[in-house]
Write a structure and sequence with these properties.
Layout lengths: L12 H7 L4 H14 L1 H11 L5 H12 L9 H10 L8 H11 L7 H13 L21 H10 L1 H15 L4 H12 L4 H17 L1 H14 L9 H7 L5 H12 L4 H18 L3 H5 L6 H13 L4 H12 L9 H9 L5 H12 L4 H14 L8 H12 L13 H18 L3 H16 L3 H12 L1
Helix pairs in contact: 2-3, 2-4, 3-4, 4-6, 6-9, 7-9, 8-11, 9-10, 9-11, 10-11, 11-12, 14-15, 15-17, 17-19, 19-21, 20-22, 21-23, 22-23, 22-24, 23-24, 24-25
Amino acid sequence: MVHILDPLSLPPFHVIIHAGIQAIEEFSRNFNSAVSKEPEKFILLVLDIGDEINEVYIDSLFSGLAYSEKLPEVPFELIEIILLKYPGDNKSYRARYICDIIEKRKDDKWSEAIMSVLKDIALNHKDPEEGKVDVSSSVDKEMKTFDMLSSNSLNCVRGKAASAIAALLWDRSELYVQFKDVVDNLINDINPAVKMATIECLCPIYNIDRDWASPKVICLLKEDYRISGHPESKQFLFLLYSNYKQDVLDVIRRCYYSDDEELITIGAHCLSKMYILYDEFSQEVEDVKNMDEDQAKSIIEMAILYFSKDQYSKKVKSLLRCFFSSDQDLEFPFVRLFYDNRIDLDRDIEFLLEMVQSKLSKRIIHAFISYLEENAMSVIDFSDVIIQMSNNILQRPLDDEDHHYMGIDDEISKLISALYDESLNYEDDNITQQCLDIWDLMFEKRIGSIHRLSRQILER
């Protein structure tokens, strides 16, 4: 049973509301904050005041409740009472907060009356209006980019309703029957932002009724390939590949060749993964010369995730070798091999030797040294890699500005000095001599700390 506060115990702001001492807008903001701190107390207070309270405060109550950290502590019955007493409308943000509250309390056994409220919001709320957007930017006022489509999907009221329905369906599959037609209506909504939001509903439904959900997802992606940028869409592309192969490949290709940076990244990630798993997109993957830098980096990023998986290692290395001669700045994705500890010396030594002799060598040396230092690894195990990399860099013409790329000469000095010391301990004369040869080359070319140290020794 819900306990209603005694009117005599009401806090001072009750008097303020009726006396009009403070501007409504300003006080409603204070009220919102107070509700967030003590949601149960203020729900009881509003229920006690009844119909006398201004609608502005009702909206503030719902907003404070929706975003309160203490929402999980509020008695479920009390939340139902307040939601049913003050249902949403098309004028305020209340319907949005109702959806948020239901979603955050998704584990509660909501009554049929609350379900009806949610359905009504999903089907009949006017936000978003046809031809209008809720969120825009100075460069995209018409929701043409994926970023603005996503922002509108997350902020429009019917999109919020879709998220709430999705949250309920994950743990209560029996609700699918009563929400199926609602989701179908959202899928066919005139606004693309709402359509994108329905992907969240189709995830739990896919586990309940795969035959119904699968064609719905494909239709959404074919109609607006930007929806493939939704976080949940990527998994659908791979789940539906076997039954909708050509449609899936077309969607990925459209993303990859779009002029939207976020979609290019998503398309390249999917394209790379499809190549590794299913031998798709070989022509695109191998056409490095015609890739832009975003495409190349994203393809490499995905490939590196599979680098340490034995069943894909050979294929991934073949893919990565395509980029060894690229003039693009591909340092960041390649250094993940070291930072993410994906290197196995016994398995990958040949690949490393090839990499350090490529144009990439100057860009990976910092990551390589950090990898050795952080893992306290013996440099003698990487002697072939270190010597090949050092020679490859030092053999370039003296006027090649790459010699001084971010202090690379000092990094080489550090590596060779460490390798020299270890070679003495291991009594490996061959490695010792190769270190000395590189030392001489650096001294001759007047580069690196070895040249400075040698000069200081000679001057003493």
